[in-house]
Amino acid sequence: MIPPLSLLVLAFFDARFQSGPLGQACGGGDPWARALDAYPARRHHSPLLQPGKALGRYDLADAASAGRVVAVARATGIGGFVLDCHRVGDQYLTGAECLDAWCDDDFGLAFRWTPPAGPATAADVAALMAAITGFSTLLADGRQVLVVNEPYRLPDPAGTVALLRQAADAAGLRGLYLVATAAEARGGLLDAGFDALLDPGPAQWRSCKPAELLNGYTFLQAEAGQADGGMFDDTIMTYAHFVNSRMVDRPSRGKVLPRVVLDYADWPDHPQGGATLLASTSPTLYRRFLAGALTYVAQHFPEDERLVFIDSWNHWRQRSQIEPTTQFGSTVLDETANGIRQGGYVALTRVGEPTPGRSPGVDYDAIAALCRQIEDELSLSA
Amino acid sequence: MLGGIAITGGRLEAFDFRFSMGPLSPEELLDSATSPPGRYVWEVARRTLARVPGADAVVVSNPLLASRGARLADLLQGGDTLRCPAVLTDAETFPVAYVLPRALFDQGLGRFLCLLSANRAATDAQLLSQLTGQIVPRRQTPLKPLAPLPKITAQGYILGDNLAAWQAQCADAVRLIRSRADWRDLPFAAHHPGHAGDVLFFSLASRLVPPERLAFRAQVVCRTYLDIFRDCGNRLDPIVLDIPPVSRTGNVSDGRYYLDSLARIDPQVRAGTFMVYCRFSKSYSRTPFNLLDQARFALGDPVATLDDTLYGWAAAARLPLGHSRCARPPAPLRVLMQLSGGWPLKAYPARPARVLVQALARLGCAVTVLDAPADLVAAGATPATAGSTDRLAALIRDHHVVLSVDSFPLHFASQVLGHPTVAVFGPTFPGNSDAPRRLGYRVPPPALPCGPCGGYKACPLDEGPECHNHPPPADLVAAILEVAAEAYGGAVLQRGDAA
């Protein structure tokens, strides 16, 4: 038999779609209306999509609805959700209690924490641990996964990591697998004690050139009010270039887990401009992106740390959701399932392949230097 | 999605099968671009009967259409009493499903379903009639007319001239059965005459399919590729086609080529052979499966589990892989390269190719490039021409390592000879045509995640003539040294250290 590979696909999940404590703490009322009542102000803003019939506008406080959501995610091949930790007063709310009843060893929960401005305090971290303890959690390397968002806000990353680990021990957790949102290992976060890094989201990391660079003529036109000025304020990236820039030369960035994005458009939260938008998105390319990410982690990461993050399951307001929509049905969900299957299969076919660049006795640096030197010589002679 | 229904004493049980994206679970079918739609009718019927061994009949949806079993059951419920065998059609005449008696399979005639046209109900009904000896009615269903069909169906089938090709193979089969009392014993021939790599994959597949599964006894092959057919140990009998292989530019489609080529096949051979159109009727990169597995499926092997695939242990153990090595002393390291492939975008770009050749030359390697352009000769490469598989095999054995883009020399060196090989993939997907992992074989990761892009002459992203997804020269040099060390020991590595 072909040995199974342990590959885990997680999806970022917004648990505020509920009438329970988290929903109430976030303002009460209809969370779907809050998320979806936004209308494009610019011609390049794609309208938000609407939930499809399969799951509808669910209320996670309703156990059956939450169960349906988890069941659909499981059937797609997703291994768990990543929930945001929302600071409410002196405690954190995650909404995990709505989903936990439907979780088990094959489907679990992880958490994402955005540190407050300034140094993290013991009380804050203790409150965080209280919020994420006691659920069916996702494990990496035998430890509970906690994603730390915007780690550059931490004045002392190493101190915060130590504080988190102490608090986890005190809370009785079997340890934390800390993942920092950062594009490459050069920032010293791994040295500070994080176990891995995670690709930042499209708005946090714009490593490919904008799709539309307007010239001075158009600039003057926009300034005079005769062209859409939003084109200057927003950053628009073509999806194909975006995907390429995320996957190209990954090993050189160090231990960075892939974040796979279907679409992204945060214009509802940037009414005055400054939004980040992906253009010409494609479910087919998304499937390849996902399959490629799975193959990559299978080849480059230890067995218990092969995680791929999908951004997102239900971030409707950023148009990145993979849940079924009224407009496109379950096309994207099907492509997600296909991508997971395809990536898993391709990874299996490469079992036994040595990790590139690791053979003893081959001087990779010298070979790279030689090729660069020849490149330079060719450039000079041209 | 393909629907299958088992009918047992008037009771219907519906099953859904889908084209697999990799896991090959029991509900999934290997997606084979070289299988005609009729091959899937046979396979779904076989799977359905395996689920319900006592079934009296099976109903299988037309593989060109996406249809669930439950939908088929709905279509069966209304109207007149269901006859078996029968061809169900839409409100007009397009075949939607086939009602097949169990006896067809008990008599070992399932393979004849490969000959169905899947787009002309009258011809299909005639074929089933000849096979079963019964009158086969065409029964209309309430389904709205399916025409006009798209150019490419949701199942991935490219229609166009393929429709006429499938019709022709079905009509020819009907004529043959009518004219020959011994039709049950006549051989099936896979019409898959080229190109070089395709003949290689079919040849290897013919060796991997267990004899009891092999539905074919012959293969139509262009004379140009007859040496490949033989040197790859094809178990089928060749039916030689004395015309050039189909053009890669698309000015003549595979379907049209099939129709035209029939007139060039010896009439006596045609009068005693069932021709099955096995050229590509889908894009082969639609799924992650190796072309060898796609060919095995076409030839009758169900390839039903991951373990059965080329990368599974069961198939790998049967792979008739050679263990070729260069007999020359390990230094200087001799490297044979093939840097251009079947279409322009497969070619390794000119500038990195010069860097690659120069780097190897400076490391003391002797580099030979097949059909080398002048700039690579100027960079230090020795030009060579293969011409035949004998000559190519001799050239390969005269070099320690082969480096090739996704082209025949790559597959020949890695899958037939088992020579130390570095595989270079750019616009195509490695999993479709690489070899199982072993010592002395490397696939340096492509540089970008954009493949397979389907590009032919130009990159779909920047519209330039070169593919940027090929691994950079430094990765290829390193891979060559790694492979050489694995295959010949540490002596050649000293050269790498000298860098």
UniProtKB/TrEMBL annotation, chain A:
<dbReference type="GO" id="GO:0016740">
    <property type="term" value="F:transferase activity"/>
</dbReference>
<protein>
    <submittedName>
        <fullName>Glycosyl transferase family WbsX</fullName>
    </submittedName>
</protein>
<keyword id="KW-0808">Transferase</keyword>
<dbReference type="InterPro" id="IPR032719">
    <property type="entry name" value="WbsX"/>
</dbReference>
<dbReference type="Pfam" id="PF14307">
    <property type="entry name" value="Glyco_tran_WbsX"/>
</dbReference>
From TrEMBL, chain B:
<dbReference type="InterPro" id="IPR051199">
    <property type="entry name" value="LPS_LOS_Heptosyltrfase"/>
</dbReference>
<protein>
    <recommendedName>
        <fullName>Glycosyl transferase family 9 (Putative heptosyltransferase)</fullName>
    </recommendedName>
</protein>
<dbReference type="GO" id="GO:0009244">
    <property type="term" value="P:lipopolysaccharide core region biosynthetic process"/>
</dbReference>
<dbReference type="GO" id="GO:0005829">
    <property type="term" value="C:cytosol"/>
</dbReference>
<dbReference type="GO" id="GO:0008713">
    <property type="term" value="F:ADP-heptose-lipopolysaccharide heptosyltransferase activity"/>
</dbReference>
